[in-house]
């Protein structure tokens, strides 16, 4: 039986990166540990741990209920946005990509169809 999980990234810039996710994106600090900060955004747990190098592989995706919420996030991330919100017909989503202070790709999206399982 799985209770949940946490996705961790190494960073050389934990304080600034954590501030982006808490102050701009709206995540909350779930647990502060020596050298690691674990954040919560809805049902997602993710953390940043001090490291000698920064891991930027992968995409951190935040899912919203409406396109208006995605548009609001586009305004909030400001210059960190890499593009304007747009329809992605291949995946039937409305989305845009941004970069966090580490250069990691961050996606903000909403599904245009009902998903079978609630998030």
Automatic annotation (TrEMBL):
- Native organism: Halogeometricum borinquense (strain ATCC 700274 / DSM 11551 / JCM 10706 / KCTC 4070 / PR3)
Where does the record place the VOC domain? 2-111
Gene3D superfamilies linked: 2,3-Dihydroxybiphenyl 1,2-Dioxygenase, domain 1
Q: Which InterPro entries match?
A: Glyas_Bleomycin-R_OHBP_Dase, VOC_core
Query: Which PROSITE patterns has this protein been placed in?
Result: VOC (PS51819)
* Record's protein name: VOC domain-containing protein
Top-rank lineage group of the source organism: Archaea
């Amino acid at each position: 039986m799985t209770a949940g999980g946490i996705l961790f990234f190494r960073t050389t810039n934990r304080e600034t990166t954590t501030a982006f996710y808490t102050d701009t994106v709206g995540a909350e600090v779930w647990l502060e540990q020596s050298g690691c900060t674990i954040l919560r955004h809805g049902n997602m747990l993710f953390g940043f741990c001090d490291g000698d190098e920064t891991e930027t592989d992968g995409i951190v995706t935040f899912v919203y209920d409406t396109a208006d919420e995605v548009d609001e996030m586009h305004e909030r991330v400001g210059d960190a946005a890499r593009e304007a919100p747009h329809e992605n017909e291949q995946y039937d989503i409305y989305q845009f990509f941004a970069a966090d202070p580490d250069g990691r790709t961050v996606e903000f999206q909403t599904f245009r169809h009902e998903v079978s399982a609630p998030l």
